[in-house]
Every structure is written in C-alpha cells, then in structure tokens.
Amino acid sequence: MSWTAFDESAAGAWDAFVAAQPGGRMVHLTGFRSAVAATYGLEPFYRVYRKGGEIRAVFPGFFHASRVYGRKILSQPFSEYGGLLLGAAVPAAERAVILEEFAAAARRALRLKRFAHLEMRSPLSLSSEEASRFHTVPLFKRAVRRLDAAEAMWKGLDHKDRNIVQKARSYGLTFAEEPGADALSQAFYPLYLATMKRLGTPPHPLAFFLRLSRGLERAMKVFLVRFRGRPVASLVAWVVGTTVHVTDMCSDEAAFFLKPNDFAVWEFLRWARESGCETFDFGPVRYRGQEIFKKKWRMELRDYSYVYITDAPGRIRNTFSGGGGLMAAAPAVWKAAVPVGLTRLFGKCLRREVGL
Hints:
Elements: E1 3-5, H1 11-19, H2 30-40, E2 43-44, E3 47-51, E4 54-59, E5 62-66, E6 70-75, E7 85-86, H3 92-113, E8 117-121, H4 128-131, E9 135-146, H5 150-156, H6 159-170, E10 174-177, H7 181-199, H8 206-215, E11 220-227, E12 230-240, E13 243-251, H9 260-274, E14 279-285, H10 288-295, E15 300-310, H11 325-337, H12 340-354
Parallel strand pairs: 6-8, 13-14
Antiparallel strand pairs: 1-3, 2-5, 3-4, 4-7, 5-6, 8-15, 9-14, 9-15, 10-11, 11-12, 12-13
Helix pairs in contact: 2-8, 6-9, 7-8
C-alpha cells in the first residue's frame, strides 16, 4: 500500500497540498483534525498518498459511532464537505491506482474496527466517473460562483436586491472582519446560539470555534454586521487557496427589518474579490428558501452527493435519510421546547451523535 498514516511532521506539506487544490476546503486542513479530536473525542483516520516523496492525495476522516446512523469512517464530521482530495495535476491512470489502493486500505480499516462503511461528504476532487467507482447517493445541490470585479457583480444583481443592500447601508449598518477570541465569544457566539435555536439545530460548543480559530487562524475569517455599534449579524468564512467557503451565517431576529444578511453577503462578495479570491462556495442548497436566497447572488447550482465505500449499500443511513421517530421530530422539539441556555449543554451531545 502507498497510503500511509498521517504524521504531525507532515502537517505543513499536507496543508500546502490542500491549498493548491481547487477542491480543498478547510475541513481538509490539519487544524480541523485537532479541533474535532479535542472537542468531540473522535479518533482520526488520516491517510496520505506519496509518490517519490511528493504528496499526490490525502484523506481526512474520523471513526464515528452513532446509535442512529451506525458505525462508519466519516469524512468529514460537522461539515458539508470532505472525502478524498487528489492532486489536480495527477494523470488519470495514476488517479485510478490511487483510488483502487485507497478502497483496499479503507476496507481493511473498516474490518479491523468492525465498522460498516466509509462516508465521504461531497468529495469535490473526484469526477463523476471516479465517484461512480463507489456507491454514490445524490442528495441536493450546492451553490458556487466565480468572483468578478465588484462593479460587474453589482450590475449582475436584480435591481430589487441592489435596493435592499442600499437601504441596509442607509440604516447605518457596517461590515468588518473582526478576528480573535473576543469577537467569537462575545459577538458571534450569542448570535449563533439564537440562530441555531430558531432553526431547531443543536449548536456546537464555543470551544469548538475557538479551537478552529487557533488551529486554522490564517484560513478563518469572522465578519460582523453592526447597527449602532451592536452586532446584529455574523458570517464565518474560510479561505483556502483562491476559494472562499461560507459555513455559518447568523443574525438577530429583531434586526431582520434591517436586512443584515443581504448586506453581509454583498459586502462579503466585495471583500472576497478584493482579497484575491476567485471562487465563492456558498455550500449546499437543501430547501427552497435557501435556493431563493443563494441564487439571487448569481450562484451556479451543482450536484451534491455523499459517496460511500461499503459492502452493504442497503444498510446506509445518513443524516438526510432520516432516523425516524424521535430523530425526525428532533428539530421541532429542539426549537419549541429547549431553552437557549440548555442548548449549550445538550448541543454538543446531539452534534456528536449525528456528526453534522
């Protein structure tokens, strides 16, 4: 086998490889590994493929055992993306060998741990033909666009959306990057907790974001929208290479009339272009409301799938296939019955269970 276990001494080379690939996301970087392991106690399964000492592919993942969704190697938990990341310049014949050897190594690890399958969340570096080597489950779409000059992007928006942004600006909203632990804990996290409660979604603990900030300091970007000095919205994004990916948007419900989310997205698009980013990844589009909001920023919708290595496709159950019973009712129960203060207590346990 040419796949070997990750070694801390290779972290710099690993991260440089990730940043050079169009499909690289923050979940592929080694800082994500340390944050997940420290916060949720999951055992990492990180592998690297080298040829002549040069990294040609990496795989980040964790052993994840769930009462509802079973035992699997998950790439990546608590994220929208993950899976194999192959070098874009690797020839097709070599890519085929890498994939074949990875499948053999993965099956061996699954047998040793008595886990059912390996799950990859939308592995962006695999072509549709390469993904078809495994078991693929189409789910929904993801939104992405190339970043143009600010003037061109502005003119490309519908006039009513430009009016919304201009009106938000007239209210005196401000948008700025505010790095550091204080901005995360005092401004972002209270907005995040309230938003997760409103959506019926268990929150991550603050410690997870703080660890991500320390381990991925150069990649993590935290932006705040303020109204009369008070934070009313926040956006968390990650710059990897020339791609920027938004993972968290949260806002104060009492400030919705100010349209802080629309203002944040537009100002962020300008910032990303001016910062040298070329591609904006707005993440998955799971329901109609998301589709409407994301498409108005002239996003292109592309397929989004989970890819599995398994000997029992019929036993696969992912977060979106549903667990039935309590799990199906959990969002409504969480939204209606769990006080915000208790979401901090129970959120970590439920997040660990579902791995999302």
